[in-house]
Amino acid sequence: MSKYRIIGNMTGNSMDAIDLVVTEFDGDKMTDICTYSKPYSKEMQSKMAFLRKQVFNKLKPEILALPDFQKIHDEYVKGIAECINDMCQKNHLDKKQIDAIGFHGKTLDYNPPSKAKKEKTLPYTLQIGSGKMLADLTGIKVIYDFRSALIMNGFEGAPLVPPHNAHIAATEGNACYYNGGNTSNFAWIIDGKALIGADAGPFNEYIDSYIRKYSPDTYDKDGQYGLKGKLLPELLQRLFNVGREYYERSLPKSGDPQYYHTAEIFDGIEKRYGFADYQTELFCDIVHTLEYFAAYVAVYSLTLCDTSVSLPAQIILFGGGWKNPVVYKAFCDLIAGKGYLLPEHQQPFHEFLSRFHQPLEVKYSRFGEYMEARLFADMARYQLEQRVWEIPEIIASGKKIICGSLAKPEEGRAFYDDMICQAAKGWQSF
Per the confidence metrics, is the pTM higher than 0.85? Predict the structure, then answer.
């Protein structure tokens, strides 16, 4: 294994910020050199939300023909390039000493095999973001389109994080590593290997979307609203019922905002409770319940883990969503056998907790900040070495699947043919 210095980038479903990290790798030993984050404007968030609606269930030629597609795409990639160039300048980084950029791109649509099989459709994934454009704008090689190879070989394509959790576990030990982003996902790591990895459900999705729609804020900073509220059991039940088909689906599985029926949820809240002004007690109660639900589905997903798997009694958290005090407390209460449970979940929660001979310990990862950005630096390293990303299902299959494509800087390139990932809808006929 060689030593590398790689920039990792992530812009998640929440589109809250452009996150960057420069990580040095010496084998699986990781050292973060510097980090960078720039919040997205509400205008850019709105453009991406608009584009998400426009591209849903469309074929690649249809997407490319959309009037605003290339303009929004180019603005997105140029924004990331500007941040990378700014970070390198401010931290006096010589770009010649950067081996690559790990660039995830922006996910706008997703139909993984687990969902496609049930609905009798064909699987696909849609990430936008030209690696060639980013390479030209930064002068650095770019590794990107990490999910296409997985989808095209019959795998879920998400979550991608379990092998990176295994690398972190070399320092932090056996545990359930739990990410709290727009969607929550977890991986059980035992002796340096990921045994189980899966998405759980909406985490920041409902909370941030509700705050943005009904208040002047973009998220519930420090739980300013949720801490003032109380749990609405009826709403908690409705939240679970609307997404029940997904929440009860067996592992492994992957999630996406389109599965969470956010607009339907909010319409139902307005019909049941009326419009809740953000300065009212009702608004705080609704936010509190959405935050409790984020923790609730995170714990519920753990109850789906096969009973044959021996699980360590440690949960390590990473991702900005855990900074919300209501979410964090609810999660800790639920895995301690406290907290409100829906009637049908009394038994599965009890059975899950009874698998442990000591109380579950919860702590934050020291690699928790910029974990998702670092993940793609790590995946870029694997692509440079042509190594299989060690997702449990891939290892079990014995297939040699290399995730990611390589783009090198090129002067005078007039057209970018990689604005859309390879496994977009209709890839089977390409």
Answer: yes
